[in-house]
Every structure is written in C-alpha cells, then in structure tokens.
Amino acid sequence: MIASIFWFLTPIWVLLFLVLLLGVFAILSRIRGGRYVRPIVAGMMKIPLLGRGLRRLSESALERSNPMLAGAVKKLERAGAMRDPQRMQKALSMLTAAERRAWMEAADQQQQQGSGSEVSNRQIRRQLERQGFGQKSAKDKAKSKGKAKGKNKKKSEAEDERRNQGRKRGKPSRRRGR
Question: For the segment 64-119, what is each residue's pLDDT rounded down to a tens digit?
Fold first, then answer.
C-alpha cells in the first residue's frame, strides 16, 4: 500500500524539486548581476543538446533586443574572431558602421560590468584606451575638465614640455633621486 502511494507521488516530488531548483537559479541570477549563475550556465553550455538550446535562446533574445548587435555577433562568430585578436580586427573592419557601434557599446558595457574597478596596470589601461575600449577615470575626467576651463594650463604645459625635452635629448623621463 505504501509503495503504491510513493509511486503515485513521484511526479509531484520531481515537480517540487524542479520548482525549488528554478527558485534557487532565479535568486542566484538576481545577486550581483548574475555573478554566481555565470559559471553554472557555462557548465550547462558544455552539454551538447542543452548548450545548443541555450545558444539559440540567447541569440533569439539578442535579436529581439538589439538586432544590430545580433548581426555583428553572427558575423564575428562566422569569421572566428572570438578567439583570435587579429581576426577580430579584420572582422570589425567588415562590419557596417551601425553594427560596429553596437559591438563597441556592448564591449564597453561588458568591460564596465566585468571589471567593477578600473584597470590598475597603467600600460593595460592605456592600451585599452588606444583601442577604444577604455573609459576615462574620474581623475582623467577632472584633468580634462580643468584643461578645458583653462585651470592649471601653464603647469601641465610646462610638465609636457619638460617631458618632451627629455625625450628629445635621449634621456628617459624618469625622476631622479629617492
């Protein structure tokens, strides 16, 4: 008698387990912008059937929200640009202006979400700024505002001139002493 009740309630237990799992997944996706869900989804993407389904869902959602970005992503994936930076440069030149703009905006947004804090290494930060991915820090914005208003203009020009003279003479622009 008890065994037969157990078999009748099995679908309910399975359904309750799936609802609980979905609830935990929903809560994790709300915490810190989905930071704790990303590794789970990355693991799920490795399962062949589930990965294809998730990829299709993601692409269709992207097409509905931002069709230009979806077109850019398809072109870049077709070119194999997601793994190779040199291919990425070639593929970016093949995009239309609107697609390139959408891609750059998405890359900026992703970098801001992923980094949380600014890049600490000066060389990497400058390289990112040259590539167009970097955002100016609050310090750089304050400097540019000050220059625009004419404040500290003489001081910054004198420093720039001193640095440039040192380079012209073949001397490094490092400070002496310490």
Answer: 988 888 888 888 888 887 777 788 888 888 888 888 888 888 888 887 776 554 55
d(CA 75, CA 67): 12
For residue 42, tell me if it sits in a domain.
Answer: no
Secondary structure of 43-90 as H, E, C letters: HHHCCHHHHHHHHHHHHHHHHHHCHHHHHHHHHHHHCCCCCCHHHHHH
Q: What is the pTM of this model?
A: 0.46
For residues 99 and 68, the answer to whether their CB atoms sit within 8 Å is yes
**Cβ–Cβ under 8 Å, residues 113 and 33:** yes
**Residue 92 falls inside a structural domain:** yes
pLDDT, tens digit, 9 for 90 and up, residues 128-156? 777 776 555 555 555 555 554 554 555 66
Determine the length of the chain: 178
Asked whether residue 15 is domain-assigned, the answer is no
Number of structural domains (the chain) is 1
Instruction: Give, for 94, the enclosing helix (H) or strand (E).
Output: helix 85-94
Q: Which amino acid is at 9?
A: L
